[in-house]
Design goal:
CATH class: Alpha Beta
CATH architecture: Alpha-Beta Complex
Radius of gyration: 16 Å
Shape: globular
Strand content: 15-25%
CATH superfamily: DHBP synthase
Number of helices: 7
Number of domains: 1
CATH topology: DHBP synthase
Length: 210
Amino acid sequence: MSRVVRWSAGAAPPVDDVADVVSTAGGVALVPTDTVYGLAARISDEAAIARIFSLKDRPAERSIPVLVASLPQAEMLADLDDVERHVAETMWPGPLTLILRARRESPVSDAAGTVGVRCPDHVLIRRIAERVGPLAVTSANRHGEPTPHSVDAAAAMLTGDVDLVVDGGDCAGEASTVVRVSPGLTVLRTGAVGIEELEVVMERLGRADP
């Protein structure tokens, strides 16, 4: 059975609890984010990432995105060109995932050598990432099912227990927008960030698609 920590608005975020779990080999936590509830593990922990795939029934070819504490932390994982850096500086922290070129092969990079990276607008996730490093985090739903915004819905979808559940109340409920921005804007998933907003940011650099 999963250990549950309840976190209410105004209280100190349970950074130590989550950091202890994900710092343990194979540790996986169910956590709230600024979008939906997600399964979190350290990006270097292959056993924990394998557990996430199993808990979600996620196809092996679908890589897991990474949540970071800041743009400098993202630049430790991926090479950003001027356009990608500008978009990140403008849109982060927030619900925008950028597909970037990974600096090296890792459990979170895909066969094409890319990795999805996001800096969330969420104090708990950013503080954990500051403590233990970038986190592999993916929505806590069975593959192909709706993304959960409540902790009960998230826990009920999984195929088994996690080590820790952080009950932080309902999340916003809309997943992040996933894009490539170089060369040009390619939308891979619509979500919380509007495409028009992205196009305005791109146009400022003269790099928006016609």
